[in-house]
Amino acid sequence: MKTIEVSKFLSLVLRHEPGKIGITLDENGWTDCRELIDAAGRRGKRFSYETLLEVVRTSDKQRFALSEDGKRIRANQGHSVKVDLALPVGTPPDRLYHGTVPKFIESIRESGLNKGARHHVHLSPDLKTATKVGQRRGEALILTIRAAEMSAAGYGFYVSENGVWLTDAVPPQFIEFP
Ligand code: HQG
């Protein structure tokens, strides 16, 4: 498998469907690299440990992390299966950004940002990243989140290992629309 295919495959099994290849994630989302590679290989998804290392190293968004001994791997964020990433709580910058698309705006105006199928709402530290996130779905529309104000009002924020800011929900009063 090419690295891009391996990356997509890892996203699927480490975030959403470990059971698809018969592996399990521990409570913090980790799984054994060797078991993962073997289980994948038995289902025709063949790649080496070296390829897996390359995917972790070159992932544009640092999607995966290895344990210090290199034996275990987990996804840094984006899970739909229940895992506790034990993320550090952080104090966000004044503003954070969220890239979305026009068709969602009405609903976001009414109910704010919600986490949908994910564990958290994902917010970007800069406009460029937010634009990329929005463009996955079409013409990107960038919302500005008054994050420091939210934090002061008692809403919790976490930072993932790859610099994505996470929170449970963003009520409409903290969102600036374009
Ligand atoms: C929208 C990718 C209607 C929200 C990216 C978004 C990111 C609402 C979509 C990461 C809404 C959810 C996350 C509401 C939110 N009404 N629509 N009240 N609240 N939405 O994919 O932020 O490639 O779950 O605007 O780069 O797009 O997976 O979230 O459009 O970092 O590593 O509902 O996923 O990273 O979509 O993306 P998603 P997201 P990976």
Automatic annotation (TrEMBL):
Claim: rRNA-binding is one of the keywords in the record: no
NCBIfam families recorded: PRK00819.1-4
Protein purpose: Removes the 2'-phosphate from RNA via an intermediate in which the phosphate is ADP-ribosylated by NAD followed by a presumed transesterification to release the RNA and generate ADP-ribose 1''-2''-cyclic phosphate (APPR>P). May function as an ADP-ribosylase.
Family stated for the protein in its record: Belongs to the KptA/TPT1 family.
Taxonomy, superkingdom: Bacteria
GO molecular function: transferase activity
Protein name (Swiss-Prot/TrEMBL): Probable RNA 2'-phosphotransferase
Primary enzyme class: transferase
Pfam families: PTS_2-RNA
EC number: 2.7.1.-
Keywords: NAD, Transferase
InterPro entries the UniProt entry points to: Ptrans_KptA/Tpt1, RNA_2'-PTrans_C, RNA_2'-PTrans_KptA, RNA_2'-PTrans_N
Keyword field contains NAD: yes
Species of the source: Luteolibacter rhizosphaerae
